[in-house]
């Protein structure tokens, strides 16, 4: 096992390095490199200079003052102007970025990339270590494949890389009951950066009860300690930040805008596609009232079943692995998420390894589902699909054309829905069987000898 750990660590580091180096090379060649981090960095700098980061003209003023004129005109063009100037980050994200914003742009960017690389790599190794006793080779293949497909994260430097890594590290700390204070801080920071990524994972620990609930409440306390100063600081500088933030989110998600899930989006065939169910239903009917309602009608019952099962279950390692696999997948479907957020699927690896080790149809299906999801949401396969289908016209006028468009442009949401339903079913069945076993043992203990 020690030899296997050395091999695993070497392959995980190699896979991570591949993404970091290739992503950095693409970023070096692209004028729009690290766009997502620019929005966070200059939003925080705007606050430091007592400006309102939720006002596009003020954040662009700070950005222009820090960039040569020719670079500013070259970078702030088209949709990238919206990505930089329309701040959709909460105050907590900007507060966390302040230490980096105090540094010049280049060292701050390098430090941000390093934090993402370290957190993702560490999270991947820890998930492998959880699954290694069940199925070391299968779990190693999955984590290495996912790490080797993080090019977009390291090209645009989206906070999802850091959030996913910290969240996964926190899960390992809580499940193993090791380095618990570090796990609390990691999950609190991930909640502060992207609550819609880590929120449902935190909810699992809250609903699971016992020690897990204690960890969730401790995490909430730390998150409040981060959030309260952030809100007070931003409110003192920009008293109308909340309606401004809501307006920015609506602007970025408007019909035809960068974050529009529908076929009218200027980013519809990007290598980093939207993964939520709204992106599928919008192809059938590009109306927010329709695709939001349709998505909620499908995801809400699954989420409710998951919540009830978690509340009624007795904590166990196997049950926790399956519960986290289900909720990590559901997270990608319930609200706006892109493919870079899907690195949170690292949390599905222990559950997949568990089912594969137990064998049977469930084990085979788990492996096929995980491999398919990792391939479809992987950056390299996504880029290959775009290249292969770039000359294929998309026809959303007919039903068959809409189905073809979904399969070509939004296959990720479909496989994630199948995967979420499968892991939820496995979780419910496991919880039921564990409850029955516990009831049988309890009854046997109360039977008096004849």
Weakly predicted, low-confidence segments: none
Q: How many domain units?
A: 1
The helix fraction, in percent, is over 70%
- Going by helix content, strand content and strand pairing, the class is mainly alpha
N-end to C-end Cα span: 49 Å
The main sheet comes to: none
Strand content: under 5%
Shape: globular
Task: Supply the number of helical segments.
Answer: 22
What is the H/E order?
A: HHHHHHHHHHHHHHHHHHHHHH
Task: Please count the beta strands (DSSP E, at least 2 residues each).
Answer: 0
Mean pLDDT: 90
CA radius of gyration: 22 Å
Secondary-structure topology with pairs:
Layout: H1 2-29, H2 35-48, H3 56-66, H4 69-75, H5 79-85, H6 91-101, H7 105-131, H8 136-147, H9 151-156, H10 160-176, H11 180-193, H12 195-208, H13 210-237, H14 241-252, H15 278-284, H16 288-312, H17 317-334, H18 349-358, H19 360-376, H20 379-389, H21 399-409, H22 411-445
Please characterize this protein's 3D structure.
The chain is an all-alpha fold and about 450 residues long. The chain has one domain (about 1-430). Helix content is about 75%, strand content about 0%. It has 22 helices and no strands. The protein has helices at about 1-30, 35-50, 55-65, 70-75, 80-85, 90-100, 105-130, 135-145, 150-155, 160-175, 180-195, 195-210, 210-235, 240-250, 280-285, 290-310, 315-335, 350-360, 360-375, 380-390, 400-410, 410-445. Helix 16 (about 290-310) runs parallel beside helix 22 (about 410-445), helix 17 (about 315-335) crosses helix 18 and helix 19 (about 360-375) packs antiparallel against helix 22 (about 410-445). The longest helix is centred in the C-terminal third of the chain and has 35 residues, at about 410-445. The N and C termini lie far apart (about 50 Å). About 50% of the residues are buried.
């Amino acid at each position: 096992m020690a030899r296997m750990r050395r091999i695993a660590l070497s392959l995980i580091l190699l896979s991570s390095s591949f993404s970091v180096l290739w992503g950095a090379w693409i970023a070096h060649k692209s004028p729009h490199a690290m766009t997502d981090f620019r929005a966070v960095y200059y939003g925080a700098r705007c606050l430091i200079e007592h400006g309102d980061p939720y006002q596009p003209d003020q954040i662009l003023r700070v950005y222009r003052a820090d960039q040569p004129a020719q670079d500013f005109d070259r970078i702030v063009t088209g949709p990238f102007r919206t990505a930089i100037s329309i701040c959709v980050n909460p105050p907590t994200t900007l507060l966390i970025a302040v230490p980096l914003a105090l540094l010049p742009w280049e060292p701050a960017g390098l430090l941000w990339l390093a934090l993402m690389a370290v957190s993702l790599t560490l999270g991947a190794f820890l998930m492998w270590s959880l699954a290694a006793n069940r199925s070391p080779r299968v779990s190693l293949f999955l984590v290495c494949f996912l790490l080797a497909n993080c090019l977009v994260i390291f090209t645009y430097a989206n906070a999802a890389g850091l959030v996913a890594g910290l969240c996964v590290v926190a899960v390992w700390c809580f499940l193993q009951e090791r380095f618990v204070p570090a796990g609390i801080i990691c999950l609190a920071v991930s909640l502060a950066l992207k609550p819609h990524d880590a929120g449902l994972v935190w909810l699992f620990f809250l609903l699971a009860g016992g020690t897990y609930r204690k960890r969730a409440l401790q995490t909430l306390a730390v998150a409040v300690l981060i959030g309260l100063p952030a809100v007070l600081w931003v409110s003192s500088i920009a008293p109308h930040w909340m309606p401004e933030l809501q307006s920015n989110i609506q602007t970025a998600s408007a019909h035809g805008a960068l974050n529009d899930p529908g076929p009218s989006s200027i980013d519809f065939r990007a290598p980093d596609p939207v993964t939520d169910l709204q992106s599928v239903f919008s192809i059938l009917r590009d109306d927010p009232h329709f695709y939001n309602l349709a998505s909620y009608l499908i995801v809400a019952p699954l989420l409710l079943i998951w919540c009830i099962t978690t509340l009624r279950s007795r904590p166990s390692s196997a049950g926790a692995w399956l519960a986290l696999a289900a909720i990590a997948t559901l997270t990608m479907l319930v609200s706006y998420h892109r493919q870079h957020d899907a690195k949170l699927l690292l949390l599905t690896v222990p559950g997949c390894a568990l089912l594969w080790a137990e064998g049977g149809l469930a084990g085979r299906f788990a492996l096929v589902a995980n491999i398919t999801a990792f391939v479809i949401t992987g950056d390299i396969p996504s880029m290959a699909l775009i290249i292969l289908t770039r000359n294929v016209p998309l026809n959303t006028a007919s039903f068959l054309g809409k189905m073809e468009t979904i399969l070509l442009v939004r296959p990720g949401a479909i496989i994630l829905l199948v995967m979420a339903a499968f892991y939820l079913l496995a979780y419910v069945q496991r919880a039921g069987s564990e409850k029955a076993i516990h009831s049988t043992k309890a009854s046997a203990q109360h039977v008096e000898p004849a």
